[in-house]
Design a protein that fits this description.
The protein is an all-alpha fold. The protein folds into 2 domains: 3-106, Alpha-helical ferredoxin (Fumarate Reductase Iron-sulfur Protein, Chain B, domain 2); 112-185, no CATH class. 58% of the residues lie in helices and 0% in strands. The structure holds iron/sulfur cluster (2 copies). The site of one iron/sulfur cluster has 16 residues, from helix 2 and helix 3.
Length: 190
């Protein structure tokens, strides 16, 4: 690569890293020194195409597009194990969330079904103040064109009180709606 191209690529990489830091409210992936503790403790790492450590490295190298197109960011369960274990105090879970937001904005969603599930979950919480499981499952099945998926499990779950036929709305749902309205006002997509 010619010197001028290399300089350009490096500057672009720095700009992308700055974007992640800004969007995540100050998390600096540049602090990561690649020890791998995050990946060793991640309960979903076995299913990821890139480990959390590799995602940090991609960001440091300015290879943002590769990170944004990964399945990893959608499979992350936001459990915070990585963030708790990181010796450099990098909030990796927050970086994953930030990458999901940026990926959505740029149209790179590697796991469309999981993205739909996130949206349905949030809508349910906004409407009822808590998640309405039956509605969530039905919505997911309809969007996935499998309306009767797992339907045989419902009678037993209903009988055991694990599923409710109708949604239970919390008492002061207006406060939850206000949170969603504030996020939208600040440009958030929920
Ligand atoms: S635990 Fe922290 S320092 Fe270690 S690889 Fe993960 S992000 Fe980097
Ligand atoms: S927050 Fe995500 S990346 Fe971190 S340990 Fe949990 S599932 Fe893995």
């Amino acid at each position: 690569m010619e010197k001028i191209e290399l300089t350009k690529a490096l500057a672009q990489g720095q700009q992308m890293l700055a974007e992640v830091t800004h969007e995540s409210g100050g998390v600096r992936a540049s602090k990561c020194y690649q020890c791998g503790k995050c990946s060793a403790g991640c309960p979903v790492a076995f299913a990821m195409d890139k480990t959390p450590r590799e995602i940090m490295r991609l960001l440091q190298l300015g290879l943002m597009e590769e990170a944004l197109k990964s399945h990893t960011i959608w499979l992350c369960a936001s459990c915070d194990t990585c963030s708790t274990r990181c010796p450099r105090e990098v909030d990796i879970a927050k970086v994953m969330e930030t990458l999901r937001i940026i990926a959505k904005k740029k149209g790179y969603v590697a796991e469309k079904k999981l993205d739909q599930f996130h949206d349905l979950f949030l809508k349910s919480v906004e409407r009822n103040g808590r998640v309405y499981e039956m509605g969530l499952v039905l919505g997911r099945n309809i969007l996935g064109m499998q309306p009767f998926k797992d339907v045989e499990l419902s009678p037993a779950m209903l009988l055991k009180g694990k599923l409710a036929l109708l949604p239970h709305t919390i008492k002061d749902n207006g406060e939850v709606k206000k949170i969603f309205a504030n996020v939208r006002k600040r440009g958030g997509k929920v």
